[in-house]
Design a protein that fits this description.
Blueprint: E1 3-9, E2 22-28, E3 36-45, H1 50-53, E4 71-81, E5 91-97, E6 101-105, E7 109-111, H2 128-141, E8 148-152, H3 157-168, E9 172-177, H4 180-188, E10 194-197, H5 204-211, E11 216-220, H6 225-231, E12 235-243, H7 262-267, E13 271-274, H8 284-296, E14 304-308, H9 313-319, E15 328-332
Parallel strand pairs: 8-9, 8-11, 9-10, 11-12, 12-13, 14-15
Antiparallel strand pairs: 1-2, 3-4, 3-6, 3-15, 4-5, 5-7
Bound molecules: NADP nicotinamide-adenine-dinucleotide phosphate.
Keywords: Oxidoreductase
Protein name: NADP-dependent oxidoreductase
GO molecular function: oxidoreductase activity, acting on the CH-CH group of donors, NAD or NADP as acceptor
Length: 336
């Protein structure tokens, strides 16, 4: 029997997860049944929402099961197939296990074209994070010419695209991120008007006030927490807040007393709307086409942080909560 590496959820974390919550082991390479495809993993995506799936709580996606292989976004190559829709050599993406090979049902895979975009883009700007930025900004944020948009988590996979989309709609865009390298990337490469390092600014609220002399109309929030506390008082009347994520609270255990934002929601008549990218599943094709066109026209840029080797998947995942990534965090497991 041919063997492969795979990663299981070993323990459920309380607070910050660590390597002890994962188990790397060898298991058999699965055989495929009727209408299935054997996929060799090339790139694995790690995403902050996976932290929620490590806990046994009810959410919009079921928790990972203890002792079972963790799953997430993967790009791979078909090595054998009993499906009429996929042939050996096709590149595919899908929601598959953290293992070197997956036996996947044909309806769980999508064929991708390596000539239209780099394979990695299908897990980033042309995949789930890009679509999240697109729908959050165009359906809820609704930035307009001359308005000011602020993005937290701005140098991440979602944030850097969200900010550029606001810019494409004519807004002035300010990013908030956690290192000077990231703030430099945002202003020098991604076209943000300004970027603020929330870890080194002594008074984030004051810095944002100076960066946004006309107040804030759109706040694309990836972080929540004290960053949002600094932003809310600067919101203009009838401002819009796509609540995309709240990464500042994902690893909190016990009581987590949040910022007092409610008076500002009332006073400034803010529209705060949480959303999950899958709410817009019916429009994914339109969103992906739009993002693809912007990329081809050079109106959208993106960055990736790619770790090497299957064993480094947990490290790359844990690094998301320390801000180790610029742009989309991926792991390269095998050659394209
Ligand atoms: N609603 C949806 O459907 C949807 C879909 C995808 C993602 N999301 C959410 O969108 C957010 C961004 O996701 P992503 O995939 O683009 O991840 P990402 O931004 O590429 O990576 C996470 C980044 O978050 C920042 N961060 C980590 N801990 C933080 C903390 N305590 N306070 C403030 N910032 C912190 C770090 O950057 P710094 O160096 O700047 O700290 C880190 O690089 C997450 O909250 C995620 O859950 C939502």
């Amino acid at each position: 029997m041919e063997m492969q590496k795979r990663i299981l959820l070993h323990k459920r974390p309380e607070g910050m997860p660590g390597h002890e919550h994962f188990k790397l082991e060898d298991g058999p390479i699965p055989s495929i049944k009727h209408n299935q495809v054997l996929v060799r993993t090339i790139y694995v995506s790690v995403d902050p929402y996976m932290r929620g799936r490590m806990e046994d709580t009810k959410s919009y996606v079921p928790p990972f099961k203890l002792g079972e292989v963790i799953d997430g976004g993967i790009v791979g190559k078909v090595v054998s197939s009993t499906s009429t829709r996929f042939s050996e050599g096709d590149y595919v993406t899908g929601h598959l296990g953290w293992q070197e090979y997956n036996a996947a049902d044909e309806h769980n895979l999508r064929k991708i074209d390596p000539d239209s975009a780099p394979l990695t883009a299908y897990l980033g700007t042309l995949g789930m994070p890009g679509l999240t930025a697109y729908f959050g900004m165009t359906k809820i944020g609704l930035p307009k010419e001359g308005e000011t948009a602020v993005v937290s988590g701005a140098a991440g996979a979602v944030g850097m695209i969200a900010g550029q989309i606001a810019k494409l709609h004519g807004a002035r865009v300010i990013g908030i991120a956690g290192t000077d390298e990231k703030t430099r990337y945002l202003t020098e490469t991604a076209g943000f008007d300004k970027a603020v390092n929330y870890k080194t600014e002594k008074n984030l609220h004051q810095s944002l006030k100076e960066a946004c002399p006309e107040g804030i109309d759109v706040y694309f929030d990836n972080t929540g927490g004290t960053i949002s506390e600094a932003v809310y008082p600067l919101m203009n009347d009838f401002g819009r807040i796509p609540q995309c994520g709240a990464i500042s609270s994902y690893n909190k255990s016990g009581d987590d007393y949040g910022p007092r934002i409610h008076p500002f929601i009332v006073k400034s008549r803010l529209r705060v709307q949480g959303f999950i990218v899958s709410d817009y599943a019916d429009e994914f094709q339109t969103g992906a086409q739009k993002l693809g066109t912007w990329l081809q026209e050079g109106r959208l840029v993106y960055e990736e942080t790619i770790n090497e080797g299957f064993d480094s998947i947990p490290d790359a995942f844990l690094g998301l909560f320390e801000g180790k990534n610029l742009g989309k965090q991926l792991i390269k497991v095998s050659d394209e």
